[in-house]
Amino acid sequence: MFDSFPRLRRAGMAAATIGVAGLLFAGCTTTSPKSAASATEQRQSINSAANASLGKLYEASPQSKELIARAKGVLIFPDVLSGSFFIGAEHGKGVLRVGGANAGYYSTTAGSIGFQAGAQSKAMFVLFMTDDALNKFRNSNGWTVGADATVAVVNIGANGRIDTNTAQQPIVGFVLNNGGLMAGVSLEGTKISKIDM
């Protein structure tokens, strides 16, 4: 009888911990006044955040500006929120720019398994370096990294320069958090879908 008490207590603690983590994550994603904003306000908010994220990317990697200038299209997700306890999720909204003009709005979602309690935010950039890569993306009905195309996440050398092999791929990606450019990151399994705004 006494043997079962520690097990029950551990099970209760685990359930409570999972519940608290769920509430913390829900607190990060619960609808806010922004979600009730008009479509115009949401677009303006995404555009403004995308411009700020581009500025941070150019600071972190000045050479990225050349690469973005050469791209046929650039998908910018300025604020991808990720949070997990045992099973994680990421979500964010962004804008596709073609020739410097806004060409549509998209959402991104991804999942992961592993212990990473807490919430984090990052910016994600997907550069379509060829017309073919851009057209396939724009004509897709839901697009998943790994299944529909490979995204080569840019490697930055010790000298701060972009790895030339990565930069020559048809689709190139950057991931940026508060600490700077993230190395060794995979976007595999990231789903991107067009949204009406």
What does this entry look like structurally?
The protein has 197 residues and is of the alpha+beta class. The chain has one domain (39-194). It contains five helices and nine strands, in the order αααββββαββαβββ. Strands 1, 2, 3, 4, 5, 6, 7, 8 and 9 form a nine-stranded mixed beta sheet that branches. The longest helix is centred in the first third of the chain and has 26 residues, at 4-29. The protein starts with a helix and ends with a strand.
Series of H and E elements: HHHEEEEHEEHEEE
| Low-pLDDT windows of residues | 1-35
- Mean pLDDT metric: 77
Structural class: alpha+beta
> What is the subunit organization of this protein?
single chain
Main beta sheet: strand number and arrangement?
A: 9 strands, mixed
- The proportion of residues forming helix, as a percent range, comes to 25-40%
Beta-strand residue fraction: 25-35%
What is the CA–CA distance across the termini?
A: 60 Å
Number of helices: 5
Q: Based on DSSP secondary structure assignment, what is the total number of beta strands?
A: 9
Basic shape:
globular
**CA-atom Rg in angstroms:** 19 Å
* Number of structural domains: 1
